[in-house]
Amino acid sequence: MNGSAAKAGTGARTAAAKGRQTTAAAGHQAKSGSAVAASKAKSSAQDAAESAESGVRSAGLATKRAAAVGWDTSRQTVLETAGKVTSKATTAWTVVKHRKAIAVGAAAGLGGLVGGAFALGRQTARTHTGPITRLTGGRI
Q: What pTM was computed for the model?
């Protein structure tokens, strides 16, 4: 029995050694696999960060372009509006400066209109008579 027991003990030790080797190999493989996975995750994270930075940069450039276009448009609008206001102010000032002449012209026009209407009214109120009656002043 001693021989069988010795063989069994040797077999158990061999099996234990093989188990340790297999466990060590699996552990080593797991470490290297996790290192590869970690480096891939790190690479993916760096790529994502670079993409995000690129996206932010391009969004910033687009915002700058839009702001520049908006600024130019608003500047042109303000200049056009200022030109219109200046033109109207100049016209108003001219009217104020020449207000007396404008008032005299308006009064003369109104007087002429009233005088013309009166003359037309008088002409239509006359009775139509012949030349002899007009010559004698209506006596004949």
A: 0.31
